[in-house]
Specification:
Layout: H1 5-16, H2 19-25, E1 30-34, H3 47-52, E2 61-67, E3 78-85, H4 98-118, E4 127-136, E5 144-156, E6 159-167, E7 173-183
Antiparallel strand pairs: 1-2, 2-3, 3-5, 4-7, 5-6, 6-7
Organism: Rhypophila decipiens
Protein name: Thioesterase
Domain Thioesterase: 93-174
Length: 188
């Protein structure tokens, strides 16, 4: 994985400059990082968000954050992200495309297991989205910054049930999703 510390610092600084984001990011014991999807990997993995949608006019910023559990062996059960949206992801003029809304939910929900793998509290086995049911509540106007939250609801064997919600700066729910991620039996 290619990580560019200057790009990571710039993305985090971008959100620290937005007052409502800075307030949330000032909470104690937060682990803040650039989204896993933002840095380039071999074989075009995550190319949609590391390259195609990583422009000033599409998604100019995407960071994740969570509260560090007191027990280092405990799973992180909630992950948040700030995502900035430009106008080149619109469906209607000034309104984010529904497919991008679903992409944001899928990405942040899918990063919850990834965080736990990196922390060593979950097996490093690939997971894939089995389903993602999305409810669109309000149009997401662009340009804007949203907060996406994912929560682990339950785990049954290889199945991880995760809920997600997209909120605006006032805490209004814009969209929500329910997903099932399944741990694969073998690598792709």
């Amino acid at each position: 994985m290619k990580r560019n510390q200057a790009a990571i610092d710039a993305e985090i600084a971008q959100f620290r400059a937005i007052p409502w984001c800075a307030k949330i990011l000032s909470a104690p014991n937060l682990v803040i990082d650039q989204s896993f999807s933002r840095f380039e990997k071999p074989k075009f993995e995550d190319a949609l968000l590391s390259h195609t949608l990583n422009t000033p006019e599409t998604i100019p910023g995407f960071i994740t954050f969570y509260t560090e559990p007191k027990d280092p062996k405990a799973m992180v059960t909630e992950l948040n992200a700030f995502i900035s949206l430009g106008n080149l992801i619109d469906g209607w003029g000034g309104i984010c495309h529904g497919g991008i809304i679903m992409t944001m939910l899928d990405e942040v929900m899918g990063q919850l297991p990834a965080v736990n793998k990196l922390r060593g509290v979950m097996n490093d086995i690939q997971l894939m989205t089995a389903y993602l049911n999305t409810t669109f509540l309000k149009p997401v106007k662009t340009p804007t910054t949203v907060m996406v939250t994912s929560r682990l609801v339950k785990q049954e064997g290889r199945k991880y049930f995760i809920d997600g919600v997209i909120r605006d700066e006032h805490g209004n729910e814009m969209a929500k999703g329910k997903a099932l991620f399944v741990m694969l039996k073998s690598r792709l």
